[in-house]
Specification:
The structure holds two protein chains of two kinds.
Chain A (H helix, E strand, L loop, with lengths): L4 H4 L4 E12 L2 E13 L4 E5 L6 H8 L7 E6 L2 E2 L5 H8 L2 E4 L13 H11 L5 H14 L16 H13 L5 E5 L7 H18 L2 E6 L2 H7 L2 E6 L2 E7 H6 L4 H9 L21 H4 L4
Chain B lengths: L5 H5 L9 E12 L2 E13 L4 E5 L6 H8 L8 E9 L2 E2 L4 H7 L4 E4 L3 H4 L6 H12 L5 H14 L5 H4 L9 H13 L5 E5 L7 H18 L2 E6 L2 H7 L2 E6 L2 E7 H6 L4 H9 L24
Parallel strand pairs in B: 3-8, 3-9, 6-7, 7-8
Antiparallel strand pairs in B: 1-2, 1-4, 4-5, 9-10
Classes of the chains: A alpha/beta, B alpha/beta.
Subcellular location (chain B): Cell membrane
Keywords (chain B): ATP-binding, Cell membrane, Membrane, Nucleotide-binding, Transport
InterPro entries (chain B): AAA+_ATPase, ABC_Ni/Peptide_Import, ABC_transporter-like_ATP-bd, ABC_transporter-like_CS, Oligopep_ABC_C, P-loop_NTPase
């Protein structure tokens, strides 16, 4: 309460009325429509929704791989929504992204150490030796053995590649990590390990997360607050525990019901479990 | 015959001859790095009205087992031994038997609905072909009438108008329904479903699973389900085989596998599934249900 309002009340990221549009032959398609939320320093927010809801577009706009049509993306006091690349460049290191596809997001020709050192080189950190040492530290930090340093992406499993992706994202010491379905291509046991790693990193470094996910279980594991999106809009938002325990919007309730938790199912082939779990209103439209 | 009870009627002669009976099935794959034993001596049966699920993580051999059962693995690169009897014929010993039962006694529902259909032909053409394969005497008009009926059965809205649509004009969930209709064109007694909902959104998965379960309730079709999702397996299965490194590490009723897992590996798998916790599930009664009338 006595903390200075300047340092404490200012969220790390504040997104206000964000609109992202794609040009199509039928005119602009609004993929993200008036989205507003905040992430405090060290916080963890999940954006959950199904295919085509705009969650990945939102992620790409936040790291400014896309330029929003309108609205504000205020990172630590600076609105980056419309910044030209020249002024954006020094801020880019502060928001990093971990991608969904552990197979397609790493350069197959580089070694793990070179991949992790690349953001350091781009950021002008130290000399080659310093960068190599720092990359080795990061690779150790994400739980890979030192024998991983000289190996290339094709030699790693999906989970190991995702660890390399995380180490690369951490290299520039970001304040915010945007994880776009970072565990959805992984087996459940591997997914659990990667989620453990993300929680550990947050506890150690105070990094903030924006987690894009379609899996409510993953959302519950990793986020304190959640935004539920459908057709580009926010349909429900609140603390993750509250939203999952008593969702108020019919769409969130359908999502909650459709998430099949094996230990919560009773009886033999209880088809009734599915009765209220489908959301036909959105299903007829091609994606 | 009048004395026969409903329970007995549900277990006719099929009780003695399973739709699918795999005994000590082994599948070796010839790869660039040598011979890999992908399936290492598994035995299982699927009877009428039953869903039997093979669950496992990537590389466990579950899909190879399914493809082996249908003999859809590349001949010459996959060496099978043991026996797989479908409708009494051993498809391991006799490749001709596999061709005879495929698309007749048994159909496949593939994993990825977005790539399983030809993008350059209408869905009517593709479904019609499947029907005329089963019934060579069928005319185009007859095939269309039957096909429209099948599309209605899998809850495609306005099936007659949609008959001339192309795959890209449908969502993933709708395409998976069309593939189920195509599988049903064969009037099979057994469906092999290889991760049929893994590429779909959760709410769409729910409607496709509901369709499959309703189909089974109505027709008594047997199903061999392949999935990595314990929630899906628990919901749809009578029995589950947990697969790892080509072997069954544990087999049992869906209830026993989830509620009383005996093997450490099964427990690890269950522990890795993120928990969702309790929620006010019955709160829907207070509000209008969102997803009742699925079909218009």
């Amino acid at each position: 309460m006595t903390d200075s309002p300047m340092a404490c009340d200012l969220p790390l990221l504040s997104v206000e009325g964000l609109v992202v549009e794609y040009a199509t032959s039928h005119g602009p398609f609004r993929a993200v429509d008036d989205v507003t939320f905040r992430i405090p320093r060290g916080g963890s927010l999940a954006v959950v929704g199904e295919s085509g809801c705009g969650k990945s577009t939102l992620a790409r706009a936040l790291v400014r791989l896309l330029k929003p049509a309108s609205g504000r993306i205020v990172l630590d006091g600076t609105d980056i929504a419309a910044l030209p690349e020249r002024r954006l460049r020094p801020l880019r290191r502060r928001v990093q992204m971990v991608f969904q596809d552990p197979y397609g997001s790493l350069d197959p020709h580089l070694t793990a150490q070179q991949i992790v050192a690349e953001p350091l080189r781009v950021g002008g950190v130290g000399d080659r030796t310093v960068r190599a040492r720092r990359a080795a530290e990061l690779i150790e930090r994400v739980g890979l053995p030192s024998s991983a340093l000289d190996r290339r992406p094709p030699e790693f499993s999906g989970g190991q590649r995702q660890r390399i992706g995380i180490a690369r994202a951490l290299a520039s010491r970001p304040d915010l990590l945007v994880c776009d379905e970072a565990t959805s291509a992984l087996d459940v046991s591997v997914q659990a390990q990667v989620l453990d790693l993300l929680r550990e990193l947050q506890a150690d470094t105070g990094i903030a997360y924006l987690v894009i996910a379609h899996n409510l279980g993953v959302v519950r594991e990793i986020s304190s607050d959640v935004v539920v999106m459908r057709a580009g809009r926010v349909v429900e938002t609140g603390p993750t525990a509250t939203v999952l325990a008593s969702p108020t919007e019919p769409y969130t309730r359908a999502l909650r019901r459709a998430a099949l938790d094996p230990t919560a199912i009773r009886g033999v082939k209880p088809r009734s479990v599915l009765a209220l779990a489908s959301a036909p209103a959105s299903e007829g439209t091609p994606t | 015959m009048a004395e026969v009870t409903t329970t007995a009627a549900n277990t006719p002669t099929a009780e003695s001859t399973p739709l699918l009976d795999a005994t000590d099935l082994q599948i070796e794959l010839i790869t660039a790095h040598g011979v890999v034993r992908a399936v290492d001596g598994v035995s299982f049966t699927v009877r009428r009205g039953e869903t039997v699920t093979l669950i496992g993580e990537s590389g466990s051999g579950k899909s190879t087992t399914a493809m082996g059962v249908l003999r859809l693995l590349p001949e010459g690169l996959a060496v099978m031994s043991g026996s797989v009897r479908i409708a009494g014929r051993d498809v391991v010993a006799d490749p001709g038997a596999a061709r005879a039962v495929r698309g007749r006694t048994v159909s496949l529902i593939p994993q990825d609905p977005m790539t399983a259909l030809s993008p350059v032909h209408t869905i009517g053409r593709q479904l019609g072909d499947a029907l005329r394969l089963r019934h060579p005497g069928m005319s185009r008009t007859q095939a269309r009438d039957k096909g429209v009926e099948l599309l209605a059965q899998v809850r495609i809205p306005q099936p007659r108008t949609r008959w001339k649509a192309y795959p890209h004009q449908f969502s993933g969930g709708m395409l998976q329904r069309i593939l189920i209709a195509t599988a049903l064109a064969a009037e099979p007694e057994l469906l092999v479903a290889d991760e049929p909902t893994s590429a779909l959104d959760a709410t769409v998965q729910a409607s496709v699973l509901d369709l499959l379960m309703e189909l089974q309730e109505r027709t008594g079709i047997g199903m061999l389900m392949i999935t990595h999702d314990l929630g899906v397996a628990r919901l749809v299965s009578d029995r589950i085989h947990v697969m790892k490194d080509g072997r069954f590490v544990e087999s049992g009723s869906a209830e026993d596998i989830v509620e009383r897992p005996a093997e450490p590996y099964t427990r690890e798998l269950l522990a890795a599934v993120p928990r969702l916790g309790a929620w006010d599930e019955d709160g829907d009664e207070r509000t209008e249900p969102v997803a009742q009338g699925a079909a218009p």
